[in-house]
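Review this chain:
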Amino acid sequence: MLKVSTMMFLVATVHFGTAFYRYWIAFGGILSEPLDAYLSRLNIWHRVMLDMLFVTQESLGAAAAVCPHSVDLTLLGLITESVLTDIPNMGRLE
């Protein structure tokens, strides 16, 4: 859990820094093109990087939520042992 949390924190920090850079250029008066044309371009490196970091963070969060046996969530008191033992029976029709 600590590894996933650390990775998500690092990804979120880089994501924030890249978004700050993107908007600093957009609203800082540095542009030589109209603002809407700049923000709607999809092929600039920081736009691609923002999307990549967003997908990475979503995937890490989903993996931590879906695989509770490999991520020890009971250390944080988020779920109890009874919930963890009942996970294999979830979704089965009786």
In short: Residues 2-89 form one domain. The chain has one domain: 2-89. Confidence is low (pLDDT under 50) at residues 73-80, 90-94.
